[in-house]
Amino acid sequence: MLRLGFPVIGVTDLDRATAFWSAALQLSTTEEWASPTWRTLVAPDGARALALMVSGSAPDPRPRQHLDLFVDTTPEQDAEVRRLIGLGATDPGWEIYPAEPDFVVLADPDGNLFCVVDLSRAPSS
Prior knowledge:
Elements (H helix, E strand, L loop, with lengths): L7 E4 L2 H12 L2 E8 L2 E5 L5 E7 L12 E5 L2 H14 L15 E5 L5 E6 L7
Parallel strand pairs: 1-4, 5-7
Antiparallel strand pairs: 2-3, 3-4, 6-7
């Protein structure tokens, strides 16, 4: 039976990406499926949550697939955006927001785009 696994993000610096995503999402590393080019990150309950894989290709500036990270309120979104920037995320200067966005686009330290979505304002109009 086919099952959905977990998201895999291509990165150039595995240690830096592991530190960022572990801190961003309160995940930890596991030795399961670990190698010099792969890290599996798990949730506090031990469930696989995210994988990081060394990649030589550049991040896509307009990815068709990306991570959405959810928060429940606008103040929480503002606080999480500030916290993630403090961890090393950057504002990629996203220019194609809708008129009333429920999301903020950020880039991880490798330049991979992701969104912080305020569920109280979703979906964007």
